[in-house]
């Protein structure tokens, strides 16, 4: 899995290799062992810090809550 952020507008694509895509398609979820989850969390913390460098001020100051709906869209999949 790779995170590719657009440094101009702050948007991001998460790109899966063929094996990852097959696992997600088959199981409809990702499962991490404790060790893999630790590595994933460490990597995610680093990229989250870096992502904030490319957001505009409105996005930088956004807050999310437990009931915030997060949906992707297909607009950029061209």
Key attributes of the depicted protein:
single chain, 10% strand, 3 helices, alpha+beta, 78 residues, two-stranded antiparallel sheet, 2 strands, globular
Give a brief rundown of this model:
The protein is of the alpha+beta class and 78 residues long.
Task: Record the SSE blueprint.
Blueprint: E1 2-5, E2 12-15, H1 18-27, H2 34-51, H3 57-60
Antiparallel strand pairs: 1-2
Total strand count, please?
2
Classification by helices and strands? alpha+beta
Q: What percent of residues are in strands?
A: 5-15%
Estimated radius of gyration:
15 Å
What helical percentage do the residues reach?
40-55%
Count of individual helical segments: 3
Mean pLDDT: 86
Architecture overview:
The protein is of the alpha+beta class and 78 residues long. Helices cover 41% and strands 10% of the residues. The chain has 3 helices and 2 strands. It has helices at residues 18-27, 34-51, 57-60, and strands at 2-5, 12-15. The radius of gyration is 15 Å and the shape is globular.
């Amino acid at each position: 899995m790779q995170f590719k952020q657009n440094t101009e507008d702050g948007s991001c694509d998460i790109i899966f290799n063929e094996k990852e895509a097959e696992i997600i398609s088959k199981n409809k979820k990702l499962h991490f062992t404790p060790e893999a989850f630790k590595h994933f969390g460490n990597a995610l913390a680093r990229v989250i810090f870096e992502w904030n460098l490319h957001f505009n001020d409105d996005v930088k100051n956004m807050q999310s809550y437990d009931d915030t709906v997060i949906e992707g869209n297909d607009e950029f999949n061209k």
